[in-house]
Write a structure and sequence with these properties.
The complex is a heterodimer. By secondary structure, chain A is of the alpha+beta class. Chain A has six helices and 19 strands. Chain A has a 15-stranded mixed β-sheet that branches. A four-stranded antiparallel β-sheet of chain A has the order 11-10-13-16. In chain A, strand 17 and strand 18 form a beta hairpin. In chain A, helix 1 packs parallel to helix 2. Chain A starts with a strand and ends with a strand. Chain B has two domains: about 110 residues, Jelly Rolls, CATH 2.60.120.380; about 30 residues, no CATH class. Chain B contains two helices and eight strands, in the order βββααβββββ. Chain B has a four-stranded antiparallel β-sheet, with no helix packed on it. Chain B has a four-stranded antiparallel β-sheet with strand order 2-7-4-5, with no helix packed on it. In chain B, a hairpin with a 4-residue loop joins strand 4 and strand 5. The longest helix of chain B has 15 residues. Chain B is elongated, with a radius of gyration of 19 Å. Classes of the chains: A alpha+beta, B mainly beta. Chains A and B meet through loops of A and helix 1, strand 4, strand 5 and strand 7 of B. Bound molecules: zinc ion (2 copies). The site of one zinc ion (ZN) has 5 residues of chain A, from loops. The site of one zinc ion has 5 residues of chain A, from loops. Chain A: GO terms for molecular function: 5'-3' DNA exonuclease activity; 5'-3' RNA exonuclease activity.
Amino acid sequence: MKWIACELHSHTFHSDGRQTLHELAAGAKALGFDCIALTDHNTMTGLMDKETVQDETGITIISGMEWTTFYGHMATIGVKEFVDWRPVGPGDIHAGLKRVHASGGIAGMAHPFRMGSPICTGCFWEFKIEDWNDLDYIEVWSGTFPSIKSDNARAFQLWTDKLNEGYRIAATSGRDWHVQSTTDEPVSVTYLSLEEGDAQATEKAVRAVAAGRASVTIGPLLTMDIVCGGSAYGIGSIISREALEFGCSVNLFADFSVRQGLWELTDQTYSLRVVGNTGIIHECSITRENSYCQFEMNGIEAIWARAELWGIVRGVHVLIAFTNAVYFD
Amino acid sequence: MRRILLETQGEVSPVCSKSHITYKFHISEPGGKLCIHFAYGPKNLEDRELSKTLVYESIEKYIEPSRRELVQAKWESYLPLKNLITVSVDDPDSHRGAGHRHDPEQLLHLSMKDASPGLISGPIHSGMWEVTLSLHAVVTDQCKFSLNIWQEEE
Ligand SMILES: [Zn+2]
Ligand SMILES: [Zn+2]
């Protein structure tokens, strides 16, 4: 499987962004991205030149729209056409989700804990969710240098809480990119693992998010592969209890070669952990030069596990990268 | 030639926040360019005391208890509080886009040939059209708006 670098939350002047789709895609290219999702507020007209811009920049562009409602901002990607947000009240989000799914798209909470109305209208998620299975993902990291922001810590915790409750829900990052301006803050990347096959790259990317084949980072690409009795399971997989009985070997790798020269971390010993609902399952130390970690896992109580890479960035001990979960059933 | 389709003014207040106002109007002659001029004001809430009250209410509502004091100390960084009303358009058959942006005055158009950013170009059919004002936030005691819609030759 191939990993591609994606920016899943962006805007153009078709809503309140200050950039064209071409400027956005060229900017993404310069930052080492392979793919962007255009998620303008309540309109999809920014996608008019999608094919041309894809050809000119080589960036894969996923059609999307940010439902910019009074009760929450919901990123929708992979939608074929406009899905109307206006009929939806605070208790009706499931009706909206149903229409997004019917249109071929998936939906995630965008920046769910950002200050809400009237400071940032609808930015704080207030929709009542009756069934978390209907929601495909949570944008747990929003903006640049996301891992130090308290709103993101809450979103990350919300995701963890839902995993603990047994929901299989994906986590992504999104810059909420409105303008081409340089930042010296670390930029987050959502890497997606695309399946083989003839489907369009955009379709594969959306399916990767939906299946949680995603790894989020402000630096190296963190991967976790689990091999149980000869079968290999990637991030997002469900591993049955029977398969676990064979005993599994867990292979963790932080790929420091991605997006060469486009990010920087001071040389250090990083802490690489596998965590689940039962706490820390395994912990090892890695460096840039020696960034593999492998361990045997026999019998597991947890219902999910993810990998996390911790280290010092700009003098602060932070989460640098995390994978989506694997699930044990 | 300019054919006036709708001319209206209105006034909304904070209780109108999170509501929509939809105008339905009839286009009898198809074709040409549909133009929409929408303006509202004031944009900003100038009343400092009221702003402080509203920011503090938001902090209470959106920030975890342990961080509230920290955020209260920088309450002024959230000023000015702003009204936000956005425009969307629907033709007799389908949705024709939206202009979700912060400008308090917008001159929008759509026609077969082109459309303002956010709006969808295409035929101007005859029939009942809709223009919807979405009141994301009204923070001033009153907010006046005007909406003028007309059709002209392309
Ligand atoms: Zn948003
Ligand atoms: Zn956004």
